């Protein structure tokens, strides 16, 4: 079953008085549980594509289906609810709250889930900090953690909502080679363990090599797509 399906998607932006077409007639399908890399040079449209999949942005034309649901015409409030419960995000710059501890950062997105009481939130936080091997750093703030540890907190935060997919925008860009490799292997292990779909926007050849499915974007169009592993 496809978790994401895009049908003839285009995205236009107004730059001054000039209209720029960031994406042109994109059609693709991503299967549930896949480990996918969207690759391409700067300005190719890969981040725009990731933002559309993540319901952060809306298309100028075409349709987007998430878990079979057409989200193209949904209101901002409806899209916000969908993001909160379906999609986790991991960013290049971690996007952690500096005044909160690791466990508080992981708990933060859970506060909007009214059905979770404090004990249930603590249970989830503990579970996912353990998944990323950071339980002993639960009380540390971001400035007390290394770059790799901060990214692990961000991954735990993304997983805590138990999303169907995690979108990662250049997650290794601010990490050294060894640390970045460890983060990639962690996400691959989580993909195998929980069957969570991972979709990356990346320049990193290691992400492309590890991906099961590679989508290459050039000039706002799909230049090639390939299944790397059976």
Total number of helices: 7
Rounded to the nearest angstrom, the radius of gyration is 18 Å
**Based on CA inertia axes, which overall geometry fits?**
globular
Judging by the overall fold, what is the CATH architecture? 3-Layer(aba) Sandwich
H/E element sequence: EEEHEEHEHHHEHEHEE
CATH classification, class level: Alpha Beta
Count of discrete structural domains? 1
Poorly predicted ranges: none
Give the proportion of residues in helices. 25-40%
State the fourth-level CATH superfamily. P-loop containing nucleotide triphosphate hydrolases
Query: Could you describe the largest sheet, including whether it forms a barrel?
Result: 6 strands, mixed
Characterise this structure.
The protein has one domain (2-227): 3-Layer(aba) Sandwich (Rossmann fold). The longest helix is centred in the last third of the chain and has 18 residues, at 177-194. Helix 4 packs across helix 5 (147-160) and helix 5 packs parallel to helix 6 (177-194). Strands 6-7-8-3-9-10 form a six-stranded mixed beta sheet, with helices on both faces. It is globular, with a radius of gyration of 18 Å. The chain has 230 residues and is of the alpha/beta class. It contains seven helices and ten strands. It has helices at residues 46-53, 76-86, 102-107, 118-131, 147-160, 177-194, 205-210, and strands at 2-15, 18-31, 35-39, 61-66, 69-70, 87-91, 165-169, 197-202, 213-218, 221-227. The two termini are 16 Å apart.
